[in-house]
Amino acid sequence: TWKWVVGPMFLYLCERLVRFWRSQQKVVITKVIIHPFKTIELQMMKKGFKMEVGQYIFVKCPAVSKLEWHPFTLTSAPEEDYFSIHVRIVGDWTEGLFNACGCDKQEFQEAWKLPKIAVDGPFGTASEDVFSYETVMLVGAGIGVTPFASVLKSVWYKYCHDATNLKLKKIYFYWLCRDTHAFEWFADLLQSLEAQMQERNNAEFLSYNIYLTGWDESQATHFVVHHEEEKDVITGLKQKTLYGRPNWENEFKTIAGQHPGSRIGVFLCGPEGLADTLNKQSISNSEADPRGVHFIFNKENF
What we know:
By secondary structure, the chain is an alpha/beta fold. The chain has 2 domains: 25-123, Translation factors (Elongation Factor Tu (Ef-tu), domain 3, Beta Barrel); 128-299, Rossmann fold. It has 7 helices and 12 strands. The chain has helices at 2-23, 92-100, 146-162, 183-199, 217-226, 248-258, 272-284; strands at residues 27-35, 39-46, 56-60, 70-73, 83-88, 118-123, 135-141, 170-177, 206-212, 242-243, 263-270, 294-301. α3 runs parallel beside α4 (183-199). It is a multi-pass membrane protein.
């Protein structure tokens, strides 16, 4: 037995040593931004840190806990000179990080008072393959929108510098969220992208559908009253916020009809139930003919 155990154990120990060495490298928090709905953004720098879109890192804050490591998706783009994460305050550890960064205080915090942070990573995810397709469907549920923040930022940078070399030609973006608060920090990015595409006369490059799933009668009434306005009253975007849940069968059939003979990447960051639904739709709407349309499903769950 020992012959079969020694090899894997040696590789495991090597991997743990590499991770320990990476976690000891100095990380500098350059900025802490408080977003609505108790969400904070940490912008950091680390020597030699290189990332791709949609990757994640493990974070440890010794001031909160000396042993706990927590995974967070990177929300920055590879083109930026820093890397960032968005942390929603939903538990003891995130509450401790919130307080350690001085976010519970009204006065301005000096940089030297910010806590030390250890970072391990980045680690790859399915979202890295986004730029391998000409057409993609990006589906985020709630805070699962974070990897697509990185993707959309990177698309923006690439589009601004040299759009002709970008293989990706069409993005269908879906965001499902229970309440309006979570829209606020992400809507700014979509507004910037929307304006950029209109300036370059390519507003059709990005099609986005935002669904508010946890709505009530008063919200629906408010929606009807303001539906004719130029911009959405919730997000400030030209695309109006939709209520309820998308009809995925209709969405897949519509996209398949608009892109015959294409390989379409479907990327999800969300719960397992939604993953099953999208996987079934990807299979049922793909044609048997190799020259027909094919949906390639990729997921990461939380």
